[in-house]
Amino acid sequence: MERREAGIGLVEILVILGLLGIMAGSAAPGIHRISREWALLGGARVVESSLFWGRTHAIAANDSLTFIVDDNGRQFYWQQPDGTRYDASVRRMPAGIRISSSPRKPLRFYPRGNAVPAATFVVEGEAGIYRVVVSAQGRIRMQRDK
Question: Which domain holds residue 122?
């Protein structure tokens, strides 16, 4: 009578490792796509939240603030009417994400919360485009372009 040890043999282990490799290989492109989507959404949310902060600060401080986007669209900040930059407000976009379009005249929030000019900021990355829209009344919304 032969006695057999319970366990997994070498062939079974190789089959399992092969299946795991196939599953991991098929999941990698999906993970890369999801990370690009999250980076794009994160960049749009950074712009949106900074605009909310600027509007709130203009109302609370009873003073106007100007939203400045650098020429390359990878960084933005707030400045006071006298040109003094709020260093704590400097934000950089995530890698591969930039503000591809903004108004020629910088957006300014006034003490009543209104904005001049009404503006659209286009946040662009490999995964697509988001638009952050500011109305003349100071309302801020974000929309995804398909």
Answer: 39-145
pLDDT band at 9 (very low <50, low <70, confident <90, very high): confident
Tokens 């988001």, located at residue: 130
**Alpha-carbon Rg of the chain, whole angstroms?**
25
The pLDDT tens digits of the residues spanning 28-42 come to: 777 888 999 999 999
Q: Is residue 74 part of a domain?
A: yes
CB 55 within 8 A of CB 140: yes
Give every CB contact of residue 59 below 8 A, 6+ residues apart in sequence.
109, 111, 112, 113
How distant is the alpha carbon of residue 115 from its chain centre?
Answer: 22
φ/ψ (deg, to 5) at 26? -80, -25
Number of domains in the chain: 1
User: What's the rounded Cα separation, in Å, for the pair 32 and 99?
Assistant: 22
Q: Would you say residue 88 lies in a domain?
A: yes
Q: Per residue in 86-136, pLDDT tens?
A: 999 999 999 999 999 999 999 999 999 999 999 999 999 999 999 999 999
Count the helices and strands in the chain (H runs, E runs): 1, 9
